[in-house]
Amino acid sequence: MYRPIFLIGFMGSGKSTVGRRLADQLGFRFIDTDTFIETRFRQRIVDMFAALGEEVFRRRERVIIEELMSMEDTVFATGGGLPCHGDTMELLNASGETVYFRCSAQILSLRLELCKRTRPTIRDKSGEELLIFTQETLARREPIYSQAKHTFDIDLIDTPEKEEAFARQLAQ
Ligand code: S3P
Description:
A five-stranded parallel beta sheet has the order 2-3-1-4-5, sandwiched between helices. The protein has one domain (5-171): Rossmann fold (3-Layer(aba) Sandwich). With 172 residues, it is α/β, with parallel strands linked by helices. Helix 3 packs across helix 4. The protein has helices at 15-26, 33-40, 45-52, 54-68, 88-95, 105-113, 127-145, 160-171, and strands at residues 5-8, 29-32, 74-77, 97-102, 150-153. The site of shikimate-3-phosphate (S3P) has 9 residues, from loops. Residues 11, 34, 45, 79-81, 119-121 line the site of shikimate-3-phosphate (S3P).
């Protein structure tokens, strides 16, 4: 039995795609915290933000990660803001391996343009606005993300083949 692996980083950095492949390689369970929260509270994250506000969502994230974080043989794709509230990053570091998928704001905002509909913090932003939001939020979160035990630059990992190869590299 192995301690869990927590993939952390900004929205659009590939935590879920790579995480699923990594879990396959290792024969581990895969948990996406966003999906888990949606199932547990029977509500989509966009609706949670709209009906109850971000604070409630952050409290739910914390409850869920505290509940799950000692699960062995598990790869977690964590929500982009999850490690950035309270002492959650310290908890993750104490519970298992933390891996930061580092990516530039320019590339993230291009990727996010294609999949922003389900993400309440960016769904109404486009082009320049999305880039500025990404730059500012990333700058605020970077000091926390960089406390991860391992960091990988993923700017150039932009095809399914490269994601597969990256997952294999992580599994080593
Ligand atoms: C968020 C990231 C999302 C989700 C929510 C808020 C954020 O997760 O938890 O929309 O604040 O960065 P992903 O990183 O999986 O997109």
